[in-house]
Amino acid sequence: MKFYINQTIVIHTIRIAGISNSSVFQIGSSGQIQPLSNLYNSGGFTEPAPLPAEEPVVPPVSVPLRPPT
Predict the structure, then answer these.
(1) Under 8 Å between Cβ of 26 and 7
(2) Does this model's pTM top 0.90?
(3) What's the superkingdom here (predicted)?
(4) Which of 6, 23, 32, 40 could be bridged to 19 by S-S, CB 3.0 to 4.6 A?
(5) 28 SS3 class
(6) Residue 41 in contact with residue 19, Cβ under 8 Å?
(7) Which long-range contacts (CB under 8 A, 24 or more apart) does 36-43 make?
(8) Top-confidence residue, 57 or 42
């Protein structure tokens, strides 16, 4: 069985908080979503990134609270 769907979709604002390699973002209808994976070296890097020298020191965070009333 085949369906033919005509749609008009108007999007004024869309916000995407995060997207990863396995995310699927879909607007409208899709009969079948084919998986696709591409790996690009857009920076032209030829070797791995250097390891960090040491763990960064993160000071403890304290938030003053108002006394209960």
Answers:
(1) no
(2) no
(3) Bacteria
(4) 23
(5) coil
(6) no
(7) none
(8) 42
